[in-house]
Amino acid sequence: MATAPPEDQRRLLEVQALDTRAQQLAHQRKNLPALAKLTELDGRISDLRASLVESRTRVADLKRELTKAESDVEQVRNRAERDQQRLDAGGVSAKDAVALTDELGSLATRQAALEEVELDVMERLEAHEDTLAKVEGANDELVAEKTKIEAERDAGWAEIDAQVQAIVGERAKAAEGLDTALVTLYEKIRTQLGGTGAAVLNGNRCEGCRMDLPPGDLATIKNAAPDAVVRCEECSRILVRVAGAKSGAAAG
To answer: What global pTM score does this model have?
Structure first.
């Protein structure tokens, strides 16, 4: 059976308490409410991204369509202006005058049709721009909310990290001078059992696994020397015997 000074065994509980607190803080860091909120926001932003891309693409397509429609109207208008100038200037034959007059009529009809197309494209573009503005507004709100939550996350992390740093210092002091073999055993058990390597023996209960020890095990522990490092037969943790220990005094 390994041995270690009784005082070192009792001090090991301080180390365990600090390790437990550090482990709790690590859990808090991974489970900050802000992290869940960020995951939710990322999902909403991702869902909105498809609508945003589609809306922007549609607006861009309609702008190109409007540019073409405007160009078509402008070309017809310019042609009509040139024909009218030729008629107004005179110097054309009667036959050419008739042809120009007929063409002006056709151009007027064509221009009216093209202006209808232009107006239709403008109305559709206006509607899609309104939709795009709403989608972009919703996206901007989500991005702003995400930035805010990221700041909350970073602040939460910073606070936890500061506490962990303080615990690291306290832990170093608590472990200073402890029996090397005892600490090595403790670290091995703690790693194997998910964080708790030492616990108080409270009456007949191991406060590590919260199990009542059978009479035979208790008798063995009672008869063990004060410097003997005893372990729970149920969970294998180091059992620290503390005079007057009460229920709930476990270090982990």
So the answer is: 0.73
